[in-house]
Description:
Layout (H helix, E strand, L loop, with lengths): L3 E10 L4 E5 L7 E13 L12 E9 L2 H7 L7 E18 L6 E20 L4 H10 L1 H4 E9 L4 E4 L6 E10 L13 E2 L2 E5 H10 L5 E18 L6 E20 L4 H24 L21
Parallel strand pairs: 11-13
Antiparallel strand pairs: 1-3, 1-5, 1-7, 2-3, 3-4, 5-6, 7-9, 7-12, 8-9, 9-10, 9-11, 12-13
Amino acid sequence: MARHNEVTLYGQVAKPPVLLRKPQNDPDGKLIRVLLPLTVIRGIRDFGAKDQRLKLDEVVIMSDNERFLDAMKEWKQGDIITMRGTLITNRYLKRCTCEQCGHEQTFQGYSAYIYPIYTRLVAQGYTPEQGLSELRRNAEVSNRITAIGTACGKPSFHRHERSGNPISSYTIDIERKYRIKGVPDSDQHDFPIVKSYGEVAENDYMAIEEGGLVFIDGQLQVRNYERTFICESCGAEIKKIDNMTEIVPYSTEYLTGCHSMADIIAAREQAKEQEAPEAEAAADGSGDEDDNNGGWEDGRDDWEN
């Protein structure tokens, strides 16, 4: 399988770096890992899009590579950083606590971070306002990912309950191009979630089948959402805020094992031909019933989940 997973970021350090040492909690111990959140901005490629639709995300950066540890540990909150890296995903057990009885239990969690292969300190000590202005000027390169992966299943599809905006979601399998220290060779795959919107979502749903190979040109979206669990001890509901990092495609290319754009266009034309007689028949009887649909509403809020 082709191996491609490249992230380009231009962002502002949101919080001071966390330094992990061995032995743990020993300030003089060997530095083994540095992690920090980097604020980036999602650019809009649609011609004429309004600037207020630009969205900020805090992407986690983490490295155990000695080439970067000394530099990353010196970064300060407010610094402007540019980097290239690769998206790494992990599934692991998280914990939640029942407010009714205090019982603690585990659940399957998901995390994602950027593993840098190149970093550069651009500027230091920017305020949040200065940082936002700088990110706006560099929105095209602030948050970008290109990846080739195999679809793990057919995309799900639904429409946003308020806007009606089409949304597709699916997971891809990306074989790692860069090896992560300490990870077995048998576990060199990442499984990011892809979430597409609008026409891209409709095309993804119609084109992608399980095992299909796709090339995605997109950006990263980090969002919080509420999960509900049942307490194993007392049966009460447990509400837990979790977070998710997803790839949002600007565009998707369907390489192998997928339906082509020609297939999609043909399917749409066939659907229109089938709908035409039904629409004509409905028009003939339109006076018999009230139309409660209220007209079509253009819900082009691509960032609603």
